[in-house]
Each structure stands twice: as C-alpha cells, then as structure tokens.
TrEMBL record:
InterPro entries associated with the record: PAP2/HPO, PAP2/HPO_sf
Domain of life: Bacteria
Domain Phosphatidic acid phosphatase type 2/haloperoxidase per the UniProt entry, residue ranges: 99-218
Intracellular or extracellular location(s): Cell membrane
Organismal lineage: Bacteria, Pseudomonadati, Bacteroidota, Flavobacteriia, Flavobacteriales
Record-linked PANTHER family: DECAPRENYLPHOSPHORYL-5-PHOSPHORIBOSE PHOSPHATASE RV3807C-RELATED, SPHINGOSINE-1-PHOSPHATE PHOSPHOHYDROLASE
Protein name in UniProt: PAP2 superfamily protein
Keyword Cell membrane carried by entry: yes
GO molecular function, one term: hydrolase activity
Any GO CC annotation of this UniProt entry: plasma membrane
C-alpha cells in the first residue's frame, strides 16, 4: 500500500503544464545585461561608485523596511540554505521526483554565489558606510561579499524549482501560484536590505541569478535521473541522516538566537523524522 502511494506521489510531479523554452533564460539574461549597462552609464562599475550611486536609496529603503525588526530578521532566515533544506526535507520524502532539480539547482546556485562574490568583492554596507546612517538588525555582516546576495539567490533558486514542478493546470491557479511565489521571493530579498546586509542591486541581481540557477537545475534534472532510481529503502537513510544533521545545526542556532523561525524549522524536521521512522516500520512489517 505504501509503495502504491509513493508511486502515485512521484508521478504527480512529472510536470507537463510548463515546458522550458529559451525565453525563460533570455528574459533574466536581458535584465542582467541591462543592469550592467545601467551601471556602466553611471560610471559605477568600480566598487566605490557602485556603492555611491545606491547609498541614498539603500538608506531610505533600509529605514522604511526595518520598522518591524523582529519580523524582518525572522523572514530573512528563509534565505539561509540550512533553513530551506530543513523545510524541504518532508517534501523530498513525499515528492521524490523533486530531488534532481532541487539538488542540481542548489549546487549551481552555490557555485554562482561563491564565485561572483569573490569576483566582485564589494564591501557590505557595515564595512563601507557609517553604521550610524542606517539600521543593522542582528549581527553586522562585514567583509567584501555583498554582490550578489546569497540569501536572495538561495530563495529564488528554491522557489523557481517549486514553481516549475508544481505549476498548476488552471489559468487562475497559474496566476495565483506564480504571484504568490514571486511575492515570497521579493519579501525575503527586501529583508536583506532591511537588516542592513545588502544594497538594492545586490538583491535584484541575486534574484535573477537564483531564477537562472533554478531553471538550469530543472533542465539538468530532467536529464539526470540516477537519484530517482534509488529504492526508498536506500534513499531514506540518506534523508534520515540529513534530518539529524540539520536538527543539530538548527538546535545550535536556537541556542545562539532564539528566533521563531528556528523553532518552526525544528518542528518541520521532527515531523519528517517521525514519518521516516514510520516508513521504516511499514517496510519491515510489510
């Protein structure tokens, strides 16, 4: 019975309602090129000028967006890879077909994030601006890793994969689904400005790069199926270990900072662990 349910859940993720075409890649690439041309026209390709042309806009946005600091600090954690993985563990259990695109997209986004941060090496706001001029929520993030926003890349990568895999059939659902996920991504991106961690262009470019990473993960995931060939009895132990590791890391975060989002993350992991243990019990019995 469990195997039939597992098979049914897997086949429902084979999305035939949305097919990747070149336009999906061309639009974000066009916007990134337009953004680069805009910076060039403003002579803002150097680190100093890049920060200078955004300084006033950043300070204004930061002031208005930081009115609810606790909320902003909780929401911004959705761009943390650990939090995203923890919330998706249950989805990986029930919808195994999402493994390939999600794993590949995450790897691609990590490569983009790390390499571009090192390439541009733009100082973060607390390192480049007077800290008395804007609001910093949580620990002040310093260093030369502002462009692009890694949290924004992570959340848009994940949302793009979810958008494609679960794209609905009905037009009204399509619009609601797309706008809902886009709104979540924008909100999380804006929290990076709210807490004083990134400039506006950091999060704009991060969102576009995350979207492209998600598309590439989906494209490669449709051709790579080795993970889905794994029998659940071989796959679930890996997920079990992942949940335990994530739980330990989240507990450590709770000790350091008692945020609501961390407690919710731990509850999600606990539920997944319970389902995994129950799954083993069913397999051993039947």
């Amino acid at each position: 019975m469990y195997r039939k349910q597992q098979t049914k859940m897997s086949t429902t993720t084979l999305n035939k309602n949305l097919k990747l075409t070149p336009i999906f890649f061309l639009i974000p690439m066009f916007i990134l090129i337009a953004l680069a041309l805009y910076l060039h026209s403003k002579n803002a390709l150097s680190k100093e000028s890049y920060i200078h042309i955004q300084k006033d806009t950043f300070i204004r946005l930061n002031f208005h967006l930081s009115q609810f600091p606790r909320l902003a600090y909780n929401l911004t954690q959705f761009g943390d890879t650990l939090i995203v993985i923890s919330f998706l563990t249950c989805l990986l259990l029930y919808v195994p077909k999402i493994k390939e695109p999600l794993i590949l997209a995450s790897i691609i986004s990590a490569i983009f994030s790390i390499s571009l941060k090192k390439l541009f090496a733009v100082p973060r706001p607390p390192s480049a601006l007077d800290r008395h001029d804007f609001v910093i929520i949580g620990k002040a993030l310093t260093g030369h890793s502002s462009l692009p926003s890694g949290h924004t890349i992570t959340v848009f990568t994940t949302l793009t994969v979810l958008w494609f895999v679960f794209f609905p059939k009905k037009i009204t659902y399509k619009i609601g689904w797309s706008l809902g996920l886009l709104s979540i991504g924008i909100i999380v991106a804006l929290t990076r400005v709210a807490i004083g961690a990134h400039y506006p262009i950091d999060v704009i470019s991060g969102g576009l790069i995350g979207y492209i990473s998600g598309l590439l993960g989906i494209l490669l995931g449709s051709k790579v199926t080795f993970l889905n060939r794994l029998h659940p009895q071989k796959y679930h132990p890996i997920l079990l270990v992942l949940c335990i590791i994530c739980s330990i890391l989240v507990l450590n975060k709770i000790v350091q900072e008692h945020l609501i989002i961390y407690n919710l993350t731990l509850i999600s992991l606990a539920f997944t662990l319970y389902k995994l243990i129950f799954t083993y019990y069913v397999y051993k019995r039947y």
